[in-house]
Amino acid sequence: MREGYGKLDKTEMGIWECIELLNEFIDDSDPDLDMPQIEHLLQTAEAIRKDYPDEDWLHLTGLIHDLGKVLLHPTFGELPQWAVVGDTFPVGCAFDECNVHFKYLKENPDYHNPEFNTKFGAYSEGCGLDNVLMSWGHDDYMYLVAKENKTTLPSAGLFIIRYHSFYPLHKHGAYMHLMNEEDNENLKWLHVFNKYDLYSKSSVRIDVEKVKPYYMSLIEKYFPDKLRW
Q1: Which residue(s) pair with 13 in the sheet?
Q2: Please, what sign has the CA dihedral across residues 150, 154, 159, 162?
Q3: Helix count and strand count (H, E) for the chain
Q4: Residues of the binding site
Q5: Where does Fe cation bind (predicted)?
Q6: Annotated binding site for Fe cation: which residue ranges?
Q7: 3-state DSSP: the chain helix, strand, coil percent, rounded to 5?
Q8: C-alpha span between 2 and 220 (Å, rounded)
Q9: With contact defined as beta carbons under 8 Å apart, do 120 and 143 qualify?
Q10: Which of 73, 111, 135, 142 has its CA 20 to 30 A from that of 79?
Q11: Pair 16, 213: CB distance under 8 Å
Q12: Domain ranges in the chain?
């Protein structure tokens, strides 16, 4: 998946175009959301903006964190929801029991492979999450798009995009033995962000046109006009 999508040869578009494209979808894995994605993204961003007015990078991260879900769109191969949304977890080391549907991971051949079924598996203590291969999903895809298009978001912003679905880590504290110092610093921001990702989904409607100019200015600050996807 990474090799295929890493070519970034699907299309070229700006961040706001992508938001509008994503608007066609509702995430089946989200139990408490029956509104288009654009409203969830803006609710998350606006809630963060209210509490952290000076951290504009965090407002933008809130807005774009789920844009990798365009993988569901026909232009991007129309991947099934199970391959795009839901929790992510490391591969190449033992599956932690807090992983969602852990019992099914026992059917993965890696579960019985002595190279991969120990605490560290293919990794070493404190090797850094950047060196850990995660299960594929919308997090890693958007991270890849942002990084390859040379975003100027700080590393905490990229960390949030890349690991916000890594619930075994930020909800259960699993896999922390693989983290390095920078990961630990960034995790603090992911915990801040996560409160808004989970609980900002209210039924209060956002006036998209009213807030759009502010977010367009942030997109211009941290991203090129057009991105390769």
Answers
A1: 227
A2: negative
A3: 10, 2
A4: 40, 65-66, 138, 164, 197
A5: 40, 65-66, 138, 164, 197
A6: 40, 65-66, 138, 164, 197
A7: 50, 5, 45
A8: 27
A9: no
A10: 111
A11: no
A12: 1-87+139-171+184-228
Residue given tokens 């390095």 in the structure block: 180
Please give the structure tokens belonging to residue 152: 């100027």
Give buried/exposed letters for 85-123 (b at 16+ CB in 10 A, else e). bbbbbbbbbbbbebbeeeeebeeeebeeeeebbeeebbb
Q: What is the pLDDT along the chain (229 residues), one digit of tens a residue?
A: 999 999 999 999 999 999 999 887 766 766 555 677 788 899 899 999 999 999 999 999 999 999 999 999 999 999 999 999 999 999 999 999 999 999 999 999 999 999 999 999 999 999 999 999 999 999 999 999 999 999 999 999 999 999 999 999 999 999 999 999 999 999 999 999 999 986 555 667 889 999 999 999 999 999 999 999 9
Long-range contacts of 29-36 (CB under 8 A, 24+ apart): 29/81, 29/85, 29/86, 30/85, 30/201, 32/201, 33/201, 35/201, 35/203
Tell me the DSSP string of 152-173.
---HHHHHHHHHTT-HHHHTT-
Residue that is written with structure tokens 């699993």 in the block:
174
Q: How far apart are CA 49 and CA 34, in angstroms?
A: 23
Report how far residue 45's alpha carbon sits from residue 182's, in angstroms, rounded to the nearest whole number.
24
Q: 228 forms bridges with which residues in the sheet? A: 12
- To the nearest 10°, report the CA torsion of 221, 195, 136, 140: 20
